[in-house]
Amino acid sequence: QVQLVESGGGLVQPGGSLRLSCAASGSIFSINGMGWYRQAPGQQRELVARIFSGGGTVYADSVKGRFAISRDNAKNTVYLQMNSLKPEDTAVYLCNTIPPRSAWGQGTQVTVSS
C-alpha cells in the first residue's frame, strides 16, 4: 500500500479558504477511490469527500458546495480545496483510499477561528 502524507492545514478565519494536499509514495493511478476524512476531538472520523478514477466525486452534506476534491495521477497527489470555512470544519484532515487500506498518516490540522 502507498504511504500518504497530508499538508496544507493551518489557522484560518471563518469564511476563509485552504487547499490541502495528499502526496502518495507510489502511483495512485490504479487506485479507484481516494478520499479525504476528518476527525474532530471527541468525534468519530468521517469521510467528507471522495473521488474516483473516472473523475466522479461525492461529498458529505456538511461540505457540499464548499469543498472540492481533485486528483493529479501524474503527481500522485489528491487535493481538497476548502472554501467558506466554518468553525465546525475544525479537525485533523487525513486522506486514504476508499475504503481505507493504507496506514493512516499524521493528517494536517485545520482550525477555523476568529
Order of neighbouring strands in the sheet with most strands: 2-10-9-4-5-6
Distance between the termini: 39 Å
Question: β content, as a range?
Answer: over 45%
Assembly level: single chain
Order of helices and strands: EEEEEEEEEE
Helix proportion: under 10%
Number of DSSP E strands? 10
Task: Enumerate the spans where pLDDT stays under 50 for 5 or more consecutive residues.
Answer: none
Number of discrete helical segments: 0
Name the shape in a single word: globular
Query: Which whole number gives the mean pLDDT?
Result: 95
Based on CA atoms alone, the radius of gyration comes out at 13 Å
Largest sheet: 6 strands, mixed
Structural class: mainly beta
Short description:
The protein is 0% helix and 48% strand. The chain has 114 residues and is mostly beta strands.
Task: Outline the fold blueprint.
Elements: E1 4-7, E2 10-12, E3 18-24, E4 33-39, E5 46-52, E6 57-59, E7 67-72, E8 77-82, E9 91-97, E10 108-112
Parallel strand pairs: 2-10
Antiparallel strand pairs: 1-3, 3-8, 4-5, 4-9, 5-6, 7-8, 9-10
How is this structure best described in words?
This protein is mostly beta strands and 114 residues long. It contains no helices and ten strands. The strands form two sheets. The chain has a six-stranded mixed β-sheet, with no helix packed on it. Strands 1-3-8-7 form a four-stranded antiparallel β-sheet, with no helix packed on it. A hairpin with a 4-residue loop joins β7 and β8. The chain is globular and about 40 Å long. The model has no long low-confidence stretch (mean pLDDT 95).
